[in-house]
Amino acid sequence: MESTSAETAAVDGVPVGVAVGGDEAVRVGLDSSEVQAAGARGPLQGLRVFDFTSYWAGPCATQVLAWFGADVVKVESVQRPDGTRMGSAYATSGDRPWELAPLFHGTNTGKRGVTVDLGRPEGVELARRLLGVCDIFVENYSPRVVERFGLLPDDGARPDLIVARMPAWGLSGPWREQPGFAQNMEQATGLAYITGHPDARPVVPRGVCDPLGGLHAAFAILAAVRLRRSTGRGQHIEAPLVDAALNVAAGQVIGWTAHGELAERRGNRSAAAAPQGVYPCGPDGGFLALSVETDAQWRRLTDLLGHPVWAAPGDLADAAARHRRHDRLDDWLRTRLGDAPDRLALVERLLAHGVPAADVVAAEHVQDHPQFAARGFFQEIDHEVAGRLAIPLFPARWQNGASPAHSRPAPGLGEHNQEIFGDLLGLTPAELATLEATHIIGTQPATH
To answer: Boundaries of CATH 3.30.1540.10 in the chain?
Structure first.
């Protein structure tokens, strides 16, 4: 639990994590003891989090708390591990494939992990004991899940406890108990409707609302922590995933309600640019993204392409003409750019002449981008089963202090049962052995 001295130090500006810029060579890995020692200095030092979240949005929120120094305890069960352990490990193999899922590693660094079967009274009692030594409770299930287990204390029993609930659709309304994922939010808020090509079906963006929802919830939790430090009282926070999605989709809703303009699918095109698109480029099968907003940019593009006949000034001199002939422009550009011998060199030339362009980078090459490498955006961290992994860091940094880093890899299933239930809660080795023998706790899925 948080102490008064820790509160005062944090308010006065305790540094966060470890520095990730400059000469800190984060890409080649930091010594784990140095990272853990530095992480303990974060502004949430002294706070413990009962992390009852799964999949992406919830773990994203609690990962932020871990980055800022909180002791985050991820609670799973051998009967129902975090869904991403299995859902994103379908292409893995080995003795413990549930420890190899990429998405799980990406959103659960800095946490300790335990397992407890909440389907049995002994498990519920153990979870309640753990919650009794925690300051923050975070969950992102359908409301009935937590309420069925009876985890949360009665009103008034823990006035200092911060409770953050992240149901898909909210704690009220006719859809209260409906489960939901980011894809459902994208469909319900209009985001999927405007994604895709005009002559094709809508395309689901596939998950962008999850980290957005997680960061919204983390922001609300941090505000509640600040208020608790002033008043000593916790807060009950409701941060539905759909609310974050509606904020992202607000522009198209406002366009319709204010002006009667219905946003439609444009593919890779834009009302503000022509030509704009993604075109095959070069002999290696790669792609180049191009966006021409102004007449000056169009003239520079045609200069670099050697003034082809189809780009005659009289036909395409202004934006309106280029919009009208966008289909033909796409055909011509696909042919012309497809013959380019060196896509990266062409991108550099276009940028040097003020024409917006970019190489479309495949995931396997993202880490190699010179800008990302220079800024140390990825931290390499060692995991017992998965080996060395490059994990993205917190997307902000502090110039006058240290910035968040991964203090430890994502936890193995039940990896810290002994630390939490034995060392922290005081269960004896015999009690722990009984719990494991009856599968109330464990370190591998019950179905394995």
So the answer is: 276-366
**Do 160 and 230 contact (CB within 8 A), yes or no?**
no
Q: Which CATH architecture has domain 4-250+376-437?
A: 3-Layer(aba) Sandwich (3.40)
CA 231/CA 216 separation, integer angstroms: 23
Give the SS3 label for residue 388: strand
Using a cut of 0.85, tell me whether the model's pTM lies above it. Answer: yes
Give pLDDT tens digits for 112-155.
Answer: 999 999 999 999 999 999 999 999 999 999 999 999 999 999 88
Residue corresponding to tokens 């660094």? 109
Where residue 150 falls (left for φ over 0; alpha for ψ -120 to 50; beta otherwise) is left
pLDDT tens per residue, range 42-52: 899 999 999 99
Cβ atoms of residues 448 and 414 within 8 Å: no
Q: Where in the chain is the domain with CATH 3.40.50.10540?
A: 4-250+376-437
**For tokens 């698109």, what's the residue?**
277
Residue 418 DSSP symbol: I
The runs of H, that is alpha helices, within 68-199 are 83-87, 102-107, 121-131, 143-149, 182-188
For Cα atoms 130, 77, 101, give the angle at the middle one, nearest 5 degrees. 120
Homologous superfamily in CATH for domain 276-366:
formyl-coa transferase, domain 3 (3.30.1540.10)
Cα-based angle 273, 277, 280 (whole degrees, multiple of 5): 150
CB 192 within 8 Å of CB 186: yes
